[in-house]
Amino acid sequence: MRRFQGKVAIVTGAGSGIGQGIAERLGCEGAKVIVDYVGSPEGAKQTEEAIEKAGGEGKIVQADVTRINDVECLVDTAWQQFGSADILVNNAGVEKKSEFWETTEADYDLVMSVNLRGPFFLTQAFVRRLRDAKRPGRIVNISSVHEDMVFPGFASYCCSKGGLRMLMRDLAVELGPLGITINNVAPGAIATPINKSLLEDKPKLNALLKNIPLGRMGTPEDVAGMVAYLASDDAAYVTGSTFVIDGGLMRNYKEQ
Questions:
Q1: What is the layout of strands, in order, in the sheet containing 87-90?
Q2: Please, which residues bridge with residue 148 across strands?
Q3: Bridge-based pairing state of the strands 180-187 and 242-245
Q4: pLDDT value of position 155
Q5: Residue 125: φ, ψ to 5°
Q6: How far is CA 132 from the centre of its chain?
Q7: Where does residue 162 rank: exposed (0-12), middle (13-18), buried (19+ CB within 10 A)?
Q8: Which residues make Cβ contacts (< 8 Å) with residue 168, sequence separation at least 6?
Q9: Are 51 and 104 in contact (CB under 8 A)?
Q10: What is the SS3 assignment for 134-163?
Q11: Kind plus residue range of the DSSP H or E element containing 180
């Protein structure tokens, strides 16, 4: 299926994990993809190669979403290289574990800058170009079940994802008249490199799996499928909502 033939997508944090899975899925379905990364050029190259192997086209851009010049460069590159930017996936994210009373200002600022400030200003740059060109668009934020569900030890992360939920809801109203939709995808426990220590700790992993009715962790492909739907014409009348991808975790979660 080539649902995104002729479309251009920007995916942040596309060098590994969920972002890599999303970029590959959109590219395999025909989109030209701006593959954003910060720390792993090797991972970004793997993403680009997977897209090209499937007959798509990718362009690697190193950009830090916390820097205004970088986010503007991401959007400008899409328009210069491919003539448009139709889909934006705000995926880049970070978390810092600490008890609330021990959280440092630096860690708080980092989490909020990457998870909330970054999507705010990248979305702004993306929308400005679409508005000027009088073109519709699709925005998908990769949020978390913790935009709604508590996560002791990660107060800054929960704040950032709760803020992303309200940003999405507000922009659904502001951007709707421009023909631009925006939705959140909220993953639960996903098997990615960021969860390497959990995956290797069998007692902790087994305790988590008992909280997941489907009995397994999710995969980047599980998340990518929902993103592809929201970015497609099938979701043309869908905006302002969060779609949870968690195997039922939120409905069955219990602190150990």
A1: 57-62, 32-37, 8-11, 87-90, 137-142, 180-187, 242-245
A2: none
A3: parallel
A4: 97
A5: -65, -40
A6: 25
A7: middle
A8: 141, 143, 182, 183, 184, 240, 242
A9: no
A10: CCCEEEEEECCHHHCCCCCCCHHHHHHHHH
A11: strand 180-187
Q: Identity (one letter) of the amino acid at 91?
A: N
The residue annotated as part of the active site, out of 37, 108, 157, 237, is 157
User: What's the CA gap between 191 and 245, in Å, rounded?
Assistant: 13
Residue type, 117: R
Q: For the chain, what are the domain ranges?
A: 8-192+219-246
In the chain, what is the straight-line distance between the N-terminal and C-terminal CA atoms, in Å? 43
Token reading at 87 = 């889909």
Spell out the residues 6+ positions from residue 169 whose beta carbon is closer than 8 angstroms to its own: 240
CATH annotation of 8-192+219-246:
3.40.50.720
DSSP SS3 for 73? helix
Based on the residue annotation, tell me whether 157 is a catalytic residue of this protein: yes
- Contact indicator for 50, 27 with CB cutoff of 8 Å: yes
Token readout for 209 is 């799996």
| Location of structure tokens 């668009």 | 137
Angle between helices 220-231 and 17-28 (to 10 degrees): 50
- Which residues have a Cβ under 8 Å from the Cβ of 137 and sit 6 or more positions away? 85, 86, 87, 88, 126, 127, 130, 178, 179, 180, 181
pLDDT the model gives residue 255: 59
Q: Which two tokens stand for residue 116?
A: 């909330």
Mean pLDDT by groups of 10 residues along the chain of 256 residues:
92 96 96 94 96 93 97 97 97 95 97 98 98 98 96 96 98 98 96 78 88 94 98 98 96 72
